[in-house]
Amino acid sequence: MNPASVTALNVDEIRKQFPVLNRKVNGKPLIYFDNAATSQKPISVIEALAEYYRNYNANIHRGIHTLAEEATKAYEHTREQARAFINAASPREIIFVRGVTEGINLVAASYGRAFLRNNDEVIISGLEHHSNIVPWQLICGQTGAKLKVIPVSESGEIDLEAFTRLLSSRTRIVAVNHASNSLGTINPIKEIIRLAHGAGAVVLIDGAQAGAHLPIDVQELDCDFYCLSSHKMYGPTGTGILYGKSHLLEKMPPYQGGGEMIKEVTFEKTTWNDLPYKFEAGTPNIADVIAFGKAMEFIRQTGRDVIEQHEQALLRYATEKVGSLPGVRLIGTAPQKVSVLSFVVDGIHPFDVGQLLDARGIAVRTGHHCTQPLMDRYGIEGTVRASFAVYNTFAEVDALTEGVRRVINFMR
Predict the structure, then answer these.
(1) Could you give the domains of the chain?
(2) What is the pLDDT of residues 236-253, one digit of tens each?
(3) Are the C-beta atoms of residues 12 and 328 closer than 8 Å to each other?
(4) Which partner from 185, 224, 364, 388 sits 20 to 30 angstroms from 30, CA to CA?
């Protein structure tokens, strides 16, 4: 395989936009393969944060002075960018949240508390991150609803036939991820949504691992809710979006109370603000939302197709190279994956592999990746996870392969 022949991306030019990639770790050039946990940030995002605080720091929406108007305009511009990024019908359907975790908790607490009843059913999958498990456990405990789980095959794919059997007249909510953070599996969410709607259920999609890698069109998918985290899309931490169909958001009670989410307040009664502000109580994370817009710009300008082609080439190359090492067992071998390579090495704990790779400047993630039930499915404590982004190179994959080879030789 000739890596240079399978990608049209000028990675050298891309890498110039990411200052952190110039640093050394333990005397070695940084090789950052922990992108599924959080991606690095381009200069445009970093400068947007500094620009806000340097030149127009102000609270938004209610101020009539120039700085407040400038801040409000920039903040609401990101909302429109987010709408376009996922092709939502209206900016009213874009709620700013701290990330996917808060987005799921908002839906579970608001929609779940309003519409779940005793013996109703919520369906999730065995591939879910804890943030798409625990909120549903909490709301099921509060409402008497029952949580059901779609089983996962040995290759790491959702069992659609089992899902069909789980659906019933009591199914109210189906919540699954677009792509697995642990294995990279891309789920057939359009078919899942179609089947769930056929049973009368609403569908929430956790898009944390899709935003930087896959095209997203919420109208074409026909999902009811979709969540994204900025920090996994080259943007800042602490912000993201919840998309919801407006007719559902209108029926849902507020998630939190405070400023901005109200129209009128008396001691006798409070009336709620219009969408999307009904769900945005208090002073928001203004600077990071504005910078999130720059991250979405970076993805659009680089080109989703180009990014996907490059990352898929990296994944194929790494799968071939690392997967051929003695004692390495790949975990998650679905044919459709985002750029995540998860593996274990016989007789060597993942933590030891990760620590020895770090000594060579290679950053990977080890452990259960907030998917303990999935690790239990495979009978393992955790994996070594290398996850690739647009700025990674084939030479870095070679370094990872050599690093794992040296770990195997050293530990044995």
Answers:
(1) 3-32+303-411 (3.90.1150.10), 47-300 (3.40.640.10)
(2) 999 999 999 999 999 999
(3) no
(4) 185
